[in-house]
Each structure stands twice: as C-alpha cells, then as structure tokens.
Amino acid sequence: MKITLKIKKKLYEACLLFVNEKQNIVTTSIESNKKALFSETKSSAGDKHETGRAMLQLEMEKVSQQLAVANQMKEVLDKISIENKSEISCLGSLIITDKANYYLAISAGKITIESSNFYAVSTNSPIGKQLLGKCIGSIIPFNEAKILEIY
User: Which residue among 5, 26, 39, 87 is buried most deeply as judged by most CB within 10 Å?
Assistant: First the structure.
C-alpha cells in the first residue's frame, strides 16, 4: 500500500469531521435542555417539578462534560501537522503494521480510505500508548503486531 500525504490529510479531515459532528450534537442537546429548563413551570405538583428540574440539571452536566471532551479532541487535532514525518511514532503519525493501520490522533474508530481500513486512536488509549514512541521493526504487545512503516 502506497501511503501518501493525501491519505494522511483524509484521515485528519475524517477526525476533524468526527469532532465537529460531536460538538454539534452536544451543542444542540445543550440548547434543547436550556429551553426545557427555562420552560419548566411550577405546577401544583411541586415535587414533580423539582424532580424534572433536577433531571434536566443532571443531563446538562452530562452534556457539558461531553462538550469538554469534544473540545479537548479538537485541541489535540490542532496540534497535528500532517506534513510531519518522523522515524519514531508520535501524535499525527500514520503507523502501518502487519496486522492493522493506525492513525495516532484521537479516538475516532475505524476510517476507510481508498478501500483500506485505518484506526484513529488516541495517544492516551491502551493501543495508542503501545504505539507511541516506537520505530519501524518494533513489535507492539497488542496482537504482537510488527510496525512496518511510519508516516
């Protein structure tokens, strides 16, 4: 498989799209919850009202955390320069092993480009930690995979 800058760029763009979609979904959910919270009116069933408000508050906290995670992913992507090529795997590296292909960026899952599968993994994930700082010929414990190429 011939790896080109074009494939790295497509992987980066797929990760960026993943983060943007996540941010949009969470932002929409936050707006929806805000509207529901402000429209929640006090009824004669006070406990029901308070329970509804408490549930909305919990949901708001949850989606706020999700937005923070999405924003952190965006910050990680902002640190990547797709033109960089290194002998040692680092953030933004495309790593080809005899078992699978990995893109060290964010945890965005499987991405298919030009009929080849790539796994976008975070440097903080278990597989990402095993791939980080390795060179061609290294064996990673996950699947006993041998690193064939690093871009």
Answer: 26
> Which neighbouring-strand residues pair with 112?
117
The boundaries of the domain holding residue 73 are 17-78
Query: Cα(145)–Cα(61) distance, rounded to whole angstroms?
Result: 40
Q: Which pLDDT tens digit goes with each residue over 94-146? A: 999 999 999 999 999 999 999 999 999 999 999 999 999 999 999 999 999 99
Give, in degrees to the nearest 5, the angle at Cα 106 between 126 and 29.
115
The pTM of the whole model exceeds 0.90: no
In a domain, 104, yes or no: no
